[in-house]
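User: I've been trying to design a sequence by hand for this structure and keep getting stuck. Would you show me what you'd pick, starting by listing the structure so we're on the same page?

Assistant: Good idea, let's start from the same input. This is the structure you sent:
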């Protein structure tokens, strides 16, 4: 098996530390559990959408404020005169975007944790806990699956 990255190991450890289940329950999911799973998925997607809306609003509002209030409009400025404005704009937009990306990864990790908790998936105990933990961490971080053979089988063959 390939060695997971530092971020993948950290995310897997985060999931395992907050998981107390010892085994998957030997029964089908109840209607309430299935509703909770759907609700957790929807909430995670909703938070991601709200983060995108908020980030876009902050960047757009900040651009308008800088252009109209700080720069006093830029219609009569040369490109060279606009450079400090654009440098400031890209710096602030970069910070807002970085915060949004961090939130999206945290939100995905939290969503995967909530779903694994509702599903009562063990991430610390059991023979398959490491495999499941690594898989869930990759899902939350949107990492591709490794090109490892599982039990001697290449899952990407044909």
């Amino acid at each position: 098996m390939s060695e997971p990255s530092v971020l993948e190991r950290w995310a897997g450890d985060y999931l395992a530390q907050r998981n107390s289940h010892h085994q998957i329950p030997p029964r089908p999911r109840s209607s309430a559990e299935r509703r909770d799973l759907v609700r957790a998925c929807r909430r995670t997607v909703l938070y991601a959408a709200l983060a995108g809306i908020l980030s876009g609003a902050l960047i757009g509002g900040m651009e308008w404020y800088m252009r109209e209030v700080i720069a006093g409009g830029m219609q009569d400025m040369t490109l060279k005169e606009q450079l400090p404005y654009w440098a400031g704009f890209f710096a602030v937009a970069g910070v807002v975007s970085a915060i949004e990306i961090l939130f999206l990864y945290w939100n995905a990790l939290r969503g995967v944790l909530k779903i694994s908790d509702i599903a009562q998936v063990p991430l610390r105990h059991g023979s398959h806990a490491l495999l499941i933990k690594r898989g869930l961490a990759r899902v939350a971080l949107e990492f591709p699956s490794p090109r490892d053979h599982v039990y001697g089988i290449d899952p990407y063959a044909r």
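That's my pick for every position. To get oriented when you compare it with your attempt: The chain has a mean pLDDT of 86. The helical segments are 6-17, 31-70, 79-118, 129-141.
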